[in-house]
């Protein structure tokens, strides 16, 4: 049995840890409100813009914009959105496994591998993949989204890659998220890409979109469009805007998922620290009471011995 001195040290240590985890919980709670609000506001916009672009792609054909053209896949680019810090439960391990699973399922090693977050970078290096670019201490900002969208667009247009994938974590709720692996480029018709990837066992079962988009995308096309000034100008404007909006939405989803995972992990850690502190305090009082009782018995026995 531990002594009362040892128990006091343990209680003090657990109390300090509880204060730290509680502070981290409060920080994550304050940050997630702003990021989650941005993510929720951006979902309808990104979803509708995606619907319009895919509708136009099917309506006008691949020849109207270079980002819509499907080519034989010889080079692949991958964007992975992870975290720089730990203490967020299984978030880093889940996104790492998803990224590695995607990379293993590609027909070739990625010629462009951009990783956001030092934790995910280390996971990919351990799996044998060398990132071509690492961005640390990133924030879900429009400037970063524009930069990444322009880089991926440049890769595709200059022939450096034939398709681009993105690995991120989608925030289903504040306390629930799911790692995703989606294709960003080319912006070709989803029906074709879904059939291509699902039919090829070597490419695993990754699809361009998650289940919540499939039903909507398989509906009939809308009516004819009237373009002002012309279809080419409309596509040249909408397609880059769509790519930037989607990347920004993925950044917000990833950051919301990270903060939500950290909030949940720190809440559990704080609750466990409080529970352990309570148990140790009870044990401390029990040991202290036993020590006091033992001392009283010793004093009484000594007094009785002196009387005798």
Q: Any overview of this molecule?
A:
This protein has about 300 residues and is an alpha/beta fold. The chain folds into 2 domains: about 5-20 and about 265-295, Orthogonal Bundle (Helix Hairpins), CATH 1.10.287; about 30-265, Pyruvate Kinase, Chain: A, domain 1 (3-Layer(aba) Sandwich), CATH 3.40.1380.10. About 60% of the residues lie in helices and about 10% in strands. The chain contains 7 helices and 5 strands; from the N terminus they run αβαβαβαββααα. It has helices at about 5-60, 90-105, 120-125, 140-155, 190-200, 210-215, 230-305, and strands at about 75-80, 110-115, 135, 165-175, 175-185. A 5-stranded mixed sheet has the order 3-2-1-4-5, sandwiched between helices. α3 (about 120-125) links the parallel β2 and β3. The chain is elongated.
Uncertain runs: 189-222
Largest sheet: 5 strands, mixed
Strand content: 5-15%
- Mind telling me which CATH architecture of the largest domain this is? 3-Layer(aba) Sandwich
Q: What does the average pLDDT come to? A: 81
- Tell me the number of strands: 5
Q: Name the overall outline.
A: elongated
- Derived structural class: alpha/beta
Q: What's the N-to-C terminus distance?
A: 35 Å
